[in-house]
User: Fold Protein-L-isoaspartate O-methyltransferase from Pseudacidovorax intermedius.
Amino acid sequence: MASEAVRQRMVRRLAAQGIADERVLKAMGAVARHAFVDGALAAQAYEDTSLPIGLGQTISKPSVVARMVELLLAAPALADQPQARLGRVLEIGTGCGYQAAVLSHVTREVYSIERLRGLHEKARANLRPLRLATVHLLLGDGMQGYPAGAPYAGIIAAAGGADLPAAWLDQLAPGGRLVAPVQSGNAGQALVIIDKTNRGVERRFLEAVNFVPLKSGIA
Ligand code: SAH
Assistant:
């Protein structure tokens, strides 16, 4: 299949760009990104670019998805199990469902929440044929997290606000890691990772990123 070869080329590019975690490279190679975007954009699906998914939202670049999932898997709780799956994960911003599908390959369970009904339904339709029994799609305001599924071994956000909602940290398990874009002073958005360790909460700012805004309420 042509898309398979193009996707494996994308995986080799990700490895060349520094993604080293085999779990992540395998997951990126397993999920058909072209099946998550409109037909007219499918030819671009394996380029390293973000693409529109409707309602003013975008699917992140493959390199950003791979980078964030790699960071998530480096959670303190998994430090001595470099091959293992992460436990239960909360994703804020389901969008078209692509990253949720990637996460299903490297975690035991995924709760993914989206505030826009149109995208929640699009993700449902995109994921249905994949029959991923461990992915749970929720319509709701992810700024509240999703307490019913807590605590989470990992939390990953695909939308960025001025601050990290307190609910996310509350719902993170000991040893868990949160990866999210957040406003970083006047410098624009940056990725932040937060680890809940037995020494306390540790926060680290990483590279600049450019995610859609985190908004409250459902629409
Ligand atoms: N992971 C997605 C990326 C989608 S873009 C994918 O693979 O396609 C980010 C998404 O976050 C948008 O769909 C936007 O509607 C959603 N979003 C923004 N604020 C939100 C909130 N408070 N709760 C849930 N979703 C939110």
